Amino acid sequence: MFRFIHSSDLHLGKRFGNFAGDLPGRLREARHGVIARLAQHAREQGADTVLLAGDTFDTETPAPEVRRQALAEMRHHAPLSWVILPGNHDCLQATPLWAALKAEAPENVLLAVEPRPLQLAPEVMLLPAPCTTRRPGRDLTEWMDGQATPEGTLRLGLAHGAIRSFSEDALAADVIAPDRARRAGLAYLALGDWHGPVEVDARTRYSGTPEPDRFKHERPGEALLVSLAGPAALPEIAPLATASFSWRMLDLHLLEDDDPVRALAALLPEARCRRQTLARIVAQGRARLAGQAALAGAIAGAAPDFAFLALDDAGLATACEPDDLDRIDRAGALREAADALLAEAQDPGRSAAEREVASAALARLYSYAQDSRADAAAP
Fold first, then answer.
1. Domain chopping of the chain, boundaries
2. Considering the domain 2-241, what is its CATH architecture?
3. Residue 279 has pLDDT above 70, yes or no
4. In the chain, is it the N or the C terminus that has fewer CB atoms within a 10 Å radius of its CB?
């Protein structure tokens, strides 16, 4: 029995510049912490090797501290072996990166930088397909088919990229044959690139990223424990939880008479989980102006509990009655602006995007009017 951990797409050093405050730093630290979590799983499950199927680093020029601290953490978990494959974000074209890694890597870190067999254990051979450039333009796993290994050897493949046109970037021209494991006689093909776990066939898997970095994938971050009894035996594969942050897209479907605040409260995770949760509330359906204002207020009130909380109300149509506009103003410039925005929001001759902009502006105008009245009434 040969047992190992399959992971990929750690993207160490990712900047997360679309977030503010201390959150980018927390997210970067969580990615570094994945190394220790993978090592703990390996110890608990009796695995001696961790295969990292590309994009260990987020860029071709990670900061020296990102690179050296990652290697130091891997060294700390010796004799556990780590195999690092160049991916499209940290491809071999990044010559300074791989030269530094060769100079600094401890003995328990193997750099799979050439398409040649690497012996992982007696009668266990790894066939890696390192990314030569960000867009190689060819199937880098093709060489595995003709590579001879001693009879009875357990053959493992390690690669990073798309199968068919299935890619994290959705633009990859480098397509890995979906039946490469069968063609090359592989007991298992460990893939990276797609950030969610995917089973291609019984012997081919994307592990997904161990620490999510976007709202695109529904599954939490995980790695795979792979156990192989022999070349002909099907692998036994088990997911291992690895993520410290949860990224969630939460759908909020509203009818005109619904209470948006109550519906939101039923949707949000329990309080103790919120600090490690990034959530985007996707509101759809119809709501009165007062309901939209209350929903926006509830989101703002709950946001400090979360790592990140945002509202996407582009799909929420505005249901408006005359008295809703009266609450903005009964006459004057504000009322004229409200009437004009309502007309634009309900104009079938305008594009959906234009109607959404007008509806959002009307909701903001309503909230502004209510806030102004509350301020005026305050002592």
1. 2-241, 246-377
2. 4-Layer Sandwich (3.60)
3. yes
4. C
